[in-house]
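Methods — Computational structure assignment.
A single polypeptide chain was analysed. Its primary sequence is given first, followed by the predicted tertiary structure written as structure tokens.
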Amino acid sequence: SLTISNTRSVVERIVNRELDMGMAGAAVDIKGLVSFTYVNDEIVMICSPDHAFGGIASPRLSELADQRFIMRESGSATREAAQEHLRSHGVDVNVVMELGSNEAVKRAVAAGLGLGLVSRFSVGPDVVAGFIKIMTVRNWKCERPLTVFYRDDTRMPAIQKAFLELLRDERPLPPMGR
């Protein structure tokens, strides 16, 4: 089965033997877990097409401090990586809404409720359809690893081993909407 959750929840569930393996947006070092980076993911800033920044070529990070932001919930690697990057540039943003998935963040941004920060892999079809825009912001280059985790003390079925080999050997196509 497939479960979508934040990094903290995925790792806890693997440690507690509720999941056999998982993929999350952060690298963590926990005894008993094996991990490898599947791919690096870019966190992009998005806005509705009608937002004032939708037509600005490259706003500065400092111009974002008074904007309304919609973010993932606490425990989300997307949020943690984005906030760490913003803080490293001295920017503290106004988070007005916390939502539990990239999809929910994109819908709120498309509705004009604020700016969002999400995985580039999640936005392609929405950008192509014109629901949201990827902003080009000066000094914004935020990446994080998408990491595969599994326990090192569990006998794996052949199908699980084959799936892990596939993940190690293959990489996804570049995201749409570049």
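Note: The longest helix spans residues 77-88.
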